[in-house]
């Protein structure tokens, strides 16, 4: 609870939490909160500037409401962000634990990590899109796979550290099984670094989704995504700059909030590092 | 040193072989008959047979793999099914653009990132540190393709400061070449600059609290020597590894940046190939990227051992 | 005897989250030419802070008051530039951790040469030649070869010799050795002490020796200042102090230390009960009163001042005086 108090003492972290909470509410309740259907076109209302009645942030070239599309875009962003990070944790945490705990397979796992690293996430996404087609799910998988090496590295080094501590050694001496030691002693103690890793991985995944959708390798139109909104808006940015500015600001605020919360969480969990 | 070198070479070779297998298997994982995929629109039985012949698709997998590797090793990456051009020629044409863009971006990121990181560490607890930290956080959070769009919208279109798109080869007109690449390099360098800044700051803070810095101060060295020589040299060792790890992000970023500024580079080749289902090109692009990543990281590690005498010179004490 | 280094009423306090904390309180010391003054005390008594404050090496959060004169030149309040020109040239330091006090990425030759190039404007070549001489002076074998070694290639004792070579490169007036042998094996300690003794004899360097090891003090020092909780509680010529300690803390310290010519394992240390107090908590009392076996009412009511003279003492109820 010390951690909670430390975070609540940091005004920047509170601001980040507020923005995050707002984004989550907008995304989850987009169906009820959005003033318009995100995919509903109205050509007679195309290029309405921000502040137009009924269109707070204006409309795009097809007369679709920017606010509504941003809300649903946030939903897609969070969806991909969480899906990707969950993928990377489900695969990366066990591998990281094993790499740190069992010397015998450490080298094997680190070759595997090197292999994944050799395929930058965009190239991975390109390959996956070529094989399985472009979709939200495939974008999330590509991003998730690309994040696995980072998870393995962090969990592995934390496991190595914990393994050398007395209470783990004591459990081993008492004859506890490896699975018991890993699940009962090491994993719970490594939880905090895993959580911090997740909070910095989600914004990275959200940026990744935006990039893929922008290139047409992620969420497919007409489904709203902040990335596809930007790639559409590129065509008519000079005429309706708001359609390009607003989705970008939304992505930036969302990732900024995540990064701020992640930073302050890390500092709160490790006050020694924060003084640095 | 030689043992370390051998070990690293061996690791890289293993990774490269694994990566080749992944690419090879990826093409075989294409839905349906790979010959159909590789043939593209042109689906008469004659050309299908030719493709089967060329790729040895009727042979057993080990034989196919050997064919694939030996062709690739000779630089034969097949032909584009759209244009019929040899793929290695297409890559050779696109790569210089991407390499120049990446090197410029790395330069931008290095200068800004290291400069701001050192400033933040030295100005600990003062407004300059706060500002540098805030900028780094922004740099990490801003989608760089959006930043690129904004730059085109406001700097190129509205103010006319830079060309919004296009490319001029360096040897045709160096000035025009750089003029076209300044904005893309700045945009591509932003995220990396933020990462480098954070790393430089934290390793500078580590270095500045080290005993040898106290020694340097006790020797009466001027701040320039204490910070610029003693602390920075040690911090840069860590920063160099970070740059190696960020290479993947740089490659991914280059693809997007090229797309925005319509640069005829590797990224454009890649994205176009996906949309045209030009599988030989996709396969080649993935293979070349993986190889480049592995080789460059090997070089970074070797560079690392050159900067750090603790690796270069074995202790005999 | 005229003093090379004169410290008067030196006080140091640090700004922390919990307010200002005092670390050194009105310390006065004198070091004569080619004299070795030992400052002894437990860890946390302020002896290292005192040493660091002499040439302005404390962090920004420190406030230093009082006076430090080197050959009559005031150092407290002197400009950064002046202090830099004095550090390494007139006052030089040796630190406790030879493992980490040398920069791992530069050769020992370049780290010694740096001092010569900064202060004497030596060329690369003369700096290198002089570095070899200095390495020989501190007893490093095959110095011509060692000059190009990196710190990690040398043993702890050798590294400490390199630190000493670096410190005496410009023939400083005062050498401040902060626990120079603490991190080293007993067998290597003697060698380092020999080097320091040799420097004092050959170069006439004055040495301020910071240590908690009374064996080292007996070996090298001419005079001793005993510090407790930021104050000097007793100061005397070394034999006088060992023979006639008057402050209860000094007697405790001597009792707590294995006797001269000792084997550390065979004697039980007579520990002084209690902890070193935080100085800011009891400004107007003897700081040792809480742990003192013979404290009087006066001891907790007012602070004893250090008496002047050959054998200075700050105690209301000294040992051996009834």
From TrEMBL, chain A:
Belongs to the binding-protein-dependent transport system permease family. Gene3D superfamilies: MetI-like (1.10.3720.10). SUPFAM superfamilies: MetI-like. It holds the Pfam family OppC_N. GO terms for biological process: transmembrane transport. This is ABC transporter permease. Residues 74-262 form the ABC transmembrane type-1 domain. The chain crosses the membrane at residues 12-34, 78-100, 112-131, 137-155, 193-219, 240-261. One of its GO terms (cellular component) is plasma membrane. PROSITE patterns: ABC_TM1 (PS50928). It comes from the Bacteria. PANTHER family: OLIGOPEPTIDE TRANSPORT SYSTEM PERMEASE PROTEIN APPC, PEPTIDE ABC TRANSPORTER PERMEASE PROTEIN. It is a multi-pass membrane protein. The lineage of its organism: Bacteria, Bacillati, Actinomycetota, Actinomycetes, Propionibacteriales. Keywords: Cell membrane, Membrane, Transmembrane, Transmembrane helix, Transport. It is found in: Cell membrane. CDD domains: TM_PBP2 (cd06261). It comes from Kribbella antibiotica.
Automatic annotation (TrEMBL), chain B:
The chain crosses the membrane at residues 103-122, 134-157, 177-197, 236-261, 281-304. Pfam families: BPD_transp_1, BPD_transp_1_N. GO terms for cellular component: plasma membrane. Keywords: Cell membrane, Membrane, Transmembrane, Transmembrane helix, Transport. It is found in: Cell membrane. Belongs to the binding-protein-dependent transport system permease family. PANTHER family: DIPEPTIDE TRANSPORT SYSTEM PERMEASE PROTEIN DPPB-RELATED. This is ABC transporter permease.
Automatic annotation (TrEMBL), chain C:
Belongs to the ABC transporter superfamily. This is ABC transporter ATP-binding protein. The keyword Cell membrane applies. It is a peripheral membrane protein. NCBIfam families: oligo_HPY. SUPFAM superfamilies: P-loop containing nucleoside triphosphate hydrolases. One of its GO terms (molecular function) is ATP hydrolysis activity.
């Amino acid at each position: 609870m010390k951690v909670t108090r430390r975070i609540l003492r940091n005004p920047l972290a509170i601001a980040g939490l507020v923005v995050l909470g707002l984004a989550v509410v907008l995304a989850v309740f987009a169906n009820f909160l959005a003033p318009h259907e995100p995919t509903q076109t109205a050509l007679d209302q195309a290029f309405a500037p921000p502040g137009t009645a009924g269109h707070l942030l204006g409309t795009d070239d097809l007369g679709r409401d920017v606010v509504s599309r941003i809300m649903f875009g946030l939903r897609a962003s969070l969806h991909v962000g969480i899906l990707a990070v969950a993928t990377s944790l489900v695969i990366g945490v066990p591998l990281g634990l094993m790499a740190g705990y069992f010397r015998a397979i450490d080298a094997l796992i680190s070759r595997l990590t090197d292999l994944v690293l050799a395929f930058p996430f965009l190239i991975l996404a390109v390959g996956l899109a070529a094989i399985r087609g472009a979709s939200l799910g495939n974008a999330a998988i590509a991003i998730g796979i690309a994040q696995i090496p980072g998870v393995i590295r962090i969990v592995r080094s934390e496991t190595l550290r914990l393994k050398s501590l007395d209470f783990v050694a004591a459990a081993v001496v008492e004859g506890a099984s490896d699975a018991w030691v890993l699940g009962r002693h090491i994993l719970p103690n490594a939880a905090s670094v895993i959580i911090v890793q997740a909070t910095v991985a989600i914004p990275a995944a959200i940026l990744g989704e935006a990039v893929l959708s922008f290139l047409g390798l992620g969420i497919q139109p007409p489904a709203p995504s902040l990335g596809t909104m930007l790639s559409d808006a590129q065509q008519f940015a000079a005429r309706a700059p708001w359609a390009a500015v607003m989705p970008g600001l939304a992505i930036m605020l969302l990732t900024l909030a995540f990064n701020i919360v992640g930073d302050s969480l890390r500092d709160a969990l490790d006050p020694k590092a924060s003084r640095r | 040193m030689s043992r370390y070198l051998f070990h690293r070479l061996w690791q890289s070779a293993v990774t490269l072989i694994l990566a080749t297998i992944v690419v090879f298997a990826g093409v075989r994982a294409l839905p349906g008959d790979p010959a159909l995929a590789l043939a593209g629109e042109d689906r008469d039985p004659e050309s299908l047979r030719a493709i089967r012949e060329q790729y040895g698709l009727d042979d057993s997998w080990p034989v196919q793999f050997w064919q694939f590797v030996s062709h690739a090793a000779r630089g034969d990456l097949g032909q584009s099914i759209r244009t019929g051009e040899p793929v290695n020629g297409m890559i050779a044409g696109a790569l210089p653009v991407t390499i120049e863009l990446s090197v410029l971006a790395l330069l931008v990121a290095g200068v800004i990132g290291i400069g701001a990181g050192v400033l933040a560490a030295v100005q600990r607890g003062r407004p300059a540190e706060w500002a540098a930290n805030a900028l780094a956080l922004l740099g990490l959070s801003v989608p760089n393709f959006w930043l690129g769009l904004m730059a085109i919208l406001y700097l190129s279109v509205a103010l006319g400061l830079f060309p919004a798109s296009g490319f001029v080869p360096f040897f045709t007109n160096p000035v025009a070449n750089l003029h076209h690449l300044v904005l893309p390099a700045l945009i591509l360098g932003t995220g990396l600059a933020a990462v480098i800044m954070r790393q430089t700051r934290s390793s500078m803070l580590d270095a500045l609290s080290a005993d040898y810095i106290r020694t340097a101060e006790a020797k009466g060295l001027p701040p320039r020597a204490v910070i610029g020589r003693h602390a920075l040299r040690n911090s840069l060792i860590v920063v160099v590894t970070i740059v190696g790890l960020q290479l993947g992000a740089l490659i991914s970023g280059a693809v997007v940046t090229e797309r925005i500024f319509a640069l005829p580079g590797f990224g454009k080749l890649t994205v176009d190939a996906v949309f045209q289902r030009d599988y030989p090109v996709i396969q080649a692009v993935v293979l070349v990227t993986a190889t480049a990543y592995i080789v460059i990281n090997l070089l970074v590690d070797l560079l690392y051992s050159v900067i750090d005498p603790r690796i270069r010179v074995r202790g005999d004490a | 005897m005229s003093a090379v280094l004169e410290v008067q009423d030196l006080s140091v306090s640090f700004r922390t989250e919990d307010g200002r904390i005092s670390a050194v309180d009105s310390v006065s010391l004198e070091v004569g030419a080619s004299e070795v003054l030992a400052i002894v005390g437990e860890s946390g008594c302020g002896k290292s802070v005192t040493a660091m404050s002499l040439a302005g090496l404390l962090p920004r959060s420190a406030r230093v008051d009082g006076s430090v004169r080197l050959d009559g030149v005031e150092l407290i309040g002197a400009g950064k530039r002046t202090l830099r020109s004095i550090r390494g040239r007139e006052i030089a330091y040796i630190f406790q951790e030879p493992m980490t006090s040398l920069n791992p990425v530069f050769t020992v030759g370049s780290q010694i040469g740096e001092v010569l190039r900064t202060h004497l404007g030596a060329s690369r070549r003369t700096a290198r030649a002089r570095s070899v001489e200095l390495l020989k002076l501190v007893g490093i074998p095959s110095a011509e070869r060692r000059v190009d070694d990196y710190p990690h290639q040398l043993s702890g004792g050798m590294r400490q010799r390199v630190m000493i070579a670096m410190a005496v490169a410009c023939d400083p007036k005062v050498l401040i050795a902060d626990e120079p042998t603490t991190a080293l094996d007993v067998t290597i300690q003697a060698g380092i002490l020999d080097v320091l003794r040799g420097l004092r004899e050959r170069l006439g360097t004055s040495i301020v020796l910071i240590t908690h090891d009374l064996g080292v003090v007996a070996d090298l020092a001419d005079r001793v200042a005993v510090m407790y909780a930021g104050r000097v509680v007793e100061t005397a010529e070394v034999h006088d102090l060992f023979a006639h300690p008057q402050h209860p803390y000094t007697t405790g310290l001597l009792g707590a230390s294995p006797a001269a010519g000792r084997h550390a394992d065979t004697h039980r240390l007579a520990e002084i009960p209690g902890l070193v107090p935080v100085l800011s908590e009891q400004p107007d009392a003897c700081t040792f009163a809480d742990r003192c076996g013979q404290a009087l009412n006066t001891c907790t009511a007012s602070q004893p001042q250090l008496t002047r003279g050959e054998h200075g003492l700050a105690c209301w109820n000294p040992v051996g005086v009834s």
